[in-house]
Amino acid sequence: MRLLRPSQVSLRWYIFVAVFVSSLTVFLGVATVSSLLYERLMAEQTQFFAIQLDREFPLMALDIEPPSVSAQVRFTYIASFIAISLVFLVFAGWLSHQASRRINRSVANFQAQIEQITNLDDLHRFNQHSYSSGFKELNLVYQNVNRLTRQLEKVLIDKDALEFRNDLLSSLIIRNAHIQHWAEYTLEVLEDIHKKLPFDFCSILFARNHQLELNTIWARPASADLQSLQEAQMSICFDQQIKNHQHPCHDWPLLRLHHSLSSEREALPPEFQPQASNTSLILLDEPRVGGILGLCFHASALTNPQVRLAVDALLIPLINLLGAARVINSYTLKLEQAISQSERENQMAANILYKHLIDKNAQCPAGVSHLIRPSGVFSGDIILTRRSPSGSVFVLIADATGHGLTATITIMPIINIFDSMVSKGHALQSIITEMNSRLVNDLPDDRFVAATLIEIDIRHQEMLLWNGGMPETLLISASGKVEQGFTSQHMALGILDHKQFDATPVRCFLPPQGFLFCFSDGLIEQVNENDQPLGQTRVYELLDQTQPYQLIDSLITAVEDHRQHLPIGDDISFCLVDLAAIKQAPDACQQQENPSNQASSLPPFYWQIRLQGRQLLNHRIATLSHDFLQTLKCDECLKERVFTLVVELTHKTLDKNLLGLPARFETSSAEALDAYHRQKQQALEQLSDDAWIELSLEGRAQTLTLHLAHNGVFPIHLSPISQEKLFSQVDGLEIDPQGQWIQLTLQV
Question: What is the average pLDDT across 458-480?
Answer without folding.
Answer: 89
